[in-house]
Design a protein that fits this description.
globular; 258 residues; binds nicotinamide-adenine-dinucleotide; Rossmann fold
Length: 258
């Protein structure tokens, strides 16, 4: 699919990876729907991407709320008249050992990462089916390829996302809609500074802020963490590719190796 002037919804757009995705897709000429919980943050990014020139639109949405998702679809259709791609990037992490992880944390992670991807795609797919054209890019993680301890909820949610991709690629293929997954590796975002760094520091014997670099150096053949734009490039490829569906594209410097 030629990307120029195509309309893409990016959920979790105001986050670290979301911004990288928006930047790369904007450079490729796509019109960006900046969708996240906080309207002010979305509006700031949309402004940077040229909302005033009709290149971007800010929408506040929660991927766990069906009504807000249907409203988002209405707003985007009223503004742009088409939706060519959906990037289900919104996600959260909660860590905890099997015997300690609370049911509330389990539910929260499954709700946003797995059910959120389902509800968002369910809201957007009918538009793409009507157009007989679409790209859906789901977000899993290296945790769906090489999970670590403490990741029961997160790894389960991300394995589930790959399952959804494999089901939907079959259901939506007759409508010329591809469905793929991106599995990011290690990107310096609040997930690392607030959760992964502090949780794994004692196991590795390094300060929390050095956990990501230490793991990258010892576990990644390429030896360096990924940048948000690396993930954006993978999304751009999957939006452009006409004959790729049901796949998981892992961007992790070789960490998982399969
Ligand atoms: N950072 C990493 O190393 C890494 C690695 C593998 C996978 N991922 C995945 O990449 C995606 C983006 O992560 P990130 O690192 O940019 O995190 P981030 O915390 O920087 O961004 C996540 C964004 O999602 C938004 N969000 C959360 N709940 C939402 C909801 N209910 N509705 C709409 N938006 C919501 C947040 O407001 C935030 O802006 C996630 O799916 C994450 O699981 C990240």
């Amino acid at each position: 699919m030629e990307l120029t002037n195509r309309v893409v919804i990016v959920t979790g757009a105001a986050g670290m990876i979301g911004r990288g995705i928006c930047k790369v897709l904007h450079q490729r000429g796509m019109k960006i729907v900046v969708a996240d919980l906080d309207l002010a943050a979305c509006a700031r990014l949309a402004e940077e991407l040229g909302a005033g020139q009709g290149n971007a639109l800010a929408v506040d949405v929660s991927v766990t709320d069906r009504v807000s998702l249907l409203r988002m679809v209405d707003v985007v259709m009223a503004h742009f008249g088409q939706i060519d791609a959906l990037v289900n990037n919104a996600g959260i992490i909660e860590l905890g050992a099997l015997t300690e992880l609370s049911e509330e944390k389990w539910d929260r992670v499954i709700d946003v990462n797995l059910k959120g991807s389902f509800l968002c795609t369910q809201a957007v797919a009918p538009v793409m089916m009507k157009q007989a054209r679409g790209r859906i890019v789901n977000f899993a993680s290296v945790a769906a390829k090489r999970p670590a301890p403490l990741q029961s909820a997160y790894a389960a949610s991300k394995h589930g996302v790959i399952g959804l991709t494999q089901v939907w690629c079959q259901e939506l293929a007759p409508y010329n809609i591809t469905v793929n997954t991106v599995c990011p590796g290690f990107i310096d975002s609040p997930m690392w500074s607030q959760q992964l760094g502090p949780a794994y520091a004692p196991m590795l014997g390094v300060p929390p802020e050095e956990v990501m670099e230490a793991l990258a150096k010892t576990q990644m053949p390429l030896g360096r963490p990924q940048q948000p734009e690396d993930i954006g490039e993978a999304v751009a490829y999957l939006c452009a590719a006409d004959n790729v569906t049901g796949q998981s594209l892992v961007i992790d410097g070789g960490f998982s190796r399969y």
